[in-house]
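Table S2 (text version). Query chain:
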Amino acid sequence: MKVNTYLNFPGNCLEALKFYEKHLGAKILMKSTFADMSASGAPQNLPPGLNRDGILHARFTLGDTIVMASDGPKVEPMRSAYLSLSVDSNEEAGRIYAALT
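Corresponding structure-token output:
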């Protein structure tokens, strides 16, 4: 069995994906928007509170780990969720810490 992490964002998932790509070396494997959800992409077909350009589903790698993510209409800040990153040097740890803070 393998467990993957799924992150939910309140409308800024694409921004987070770009951040992870730039600062953590993430590789985006796929992403689809809410507009992609229907052939027409018409706003009336979207759930209330969602932007048509928001991320319906994304999948990316972060090191050897697969992470999935999306935007949601009623997402609250995370509580008691932790991720542990392992790096090869103190310098890389410092660079990542500075980017994440």
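Notes on Table S2: Helices lie at 13-24, 90-100. The first strand starts at residue 5 and ends at 9.
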